[in-house]
Fold this sequence. Notes:
Elements: H1 5-20, H2 27-34, H3 38-45, H4 48-71, H5 78-95, H6 97-106, H7 112-119, H8 121-138, H9 147-163, H10 165-172, H11 179-197
Amino acid sequence: MRKNSKEAIITAAVSLFNSNGYDGTSIRDIAREAKINAANISYYFRNKQGLLEYCLTAFFEGYMAELEKGFSTLEAGATDCLRDISKKLWFYQCNHIQLTRFVLREMSIDSQIVREILSTYYSKEKYIFHTVLEKGIEAKEFHSHAIHYLLIQFKGLLSIPFLNTQYLTEVLHVFPQERYFADKYLQEIYRWIDGIVCANSGNPSNGLLKTS
């Protein structure tokens, strides 16, 4: 058994799920790509469904950890908190780009595991986003927008580049895997916060270009 066979299985599975789809990928395909015996997949994950559940859980555990770190800064102000959340979630996804692409596509399918994630991770995410926006509105940092519509826009900004990578690369000729794109796009998220969300939109934060 390879020393890092579990990591090799996960890497191979995510790559194949992205290129062939979950249903179009077999255990043998994953074993071949990972250069391991198919029995190793059963040892670590039982079956392909177990591997899927592991990938989804690993992604959302990391995602929520970053979200909670950003949320912990709320007492310093809703605007800075929303920017910090944006930065942490954006770079988490960029640093796990293939896993992010697969997870976000999988979340568009109605299945039992997706419903479980909606009722757990996404429910907590909604609570955090809603709390930040609500506090910002109450403190008059933010315009009095309809919060659900702001959430739709915010989620779209954070997810669209990973859901439409072919469009980005083939039509727009921008490349989500490049650090330049990640830094530039984060600036645009900040511009949305400053220009649309914030009540003091005429004076964008000096932190706009702070992407490191």
